[in-house]
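[job 4471] stage=fold_predict status=RUNNING
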Amino acid sequence: MKKILVGLFILILICIGMVLFNEYILNKNKMDVPKIISGNTYNGKKLYSLYCLTCHGENGAGINKMGPSLANPQYLKSITNRQIWITTAYGRKGTRMGPSLKGLSGARQLKKEDITDIVSYIRSLQSINKK
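[job 4471] inference complete, writing structure tokens
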């Protein structure tokens, strides 16, 4: 019985340690994302044409071996604006998609508002595909 209690106590300590470690990692990698992501779609399309079109294609159609389709209905249905914003701002490790947020190491140095506008344009592709 004593061994069971000691084992249970150790298991509880391990669980608490995992929770604290996860909190530490989340806080260490805290990303500065706007609470509301609703921008100017027209400006977003202009910025998309300048910075995203080369890899992601006209109207987000995607370009083989360059960038995936951003206009895919399943993609747009399953991803949040916050996730699109984070990917656009901070990039994706292991891909050509580097950071875009001003002050980071990427070639594009976009303001938060610019990224929000691009996200709004990408989200608008959902309605274009329904036609």
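[job 4471] summary: The chain has a mean pLDDT of 80.
[job 4471] exit 0
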